[in-house]
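Bumping with the actual sequence this time:
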Amino acid sequence: MSKIEKKHKINIEVGIGKENLPENIRWKADDDPSGKKVHEAKAMLLAFFDRDSLDSVKLDIWTKDMQVVEMDRFFFQTLRAMADTYYKATQNTELAAAMQQFVHFFGEKTEIIPKDK
């Protein structure tokens, strides 16, 4: 393993309400180029690939005021980004293109993008 030369910290804070449901999500990163101290979010997806067990561990949280149309957009954008990341990491053109086809289908079904005629 190579020597670590620098560390960055990302802090995530989830405010929980009376019904034990997330009320807000706030995050900050010590190397945020926007200069913002704290960002507000309505949803988050976080996944880790465990080095030892080779299993994925995920955490998905959304606030109670997250609308379905917002969740649709969030998933559309996340799926599109995942397909891009998969291609960058593997150079597997065939599977990345298939993933993007699903993203397009998802976008049409949720009316985020207009349907092809």
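The tokens above came from a reply further down the thread. The first helix runs from residue 68 to 90.
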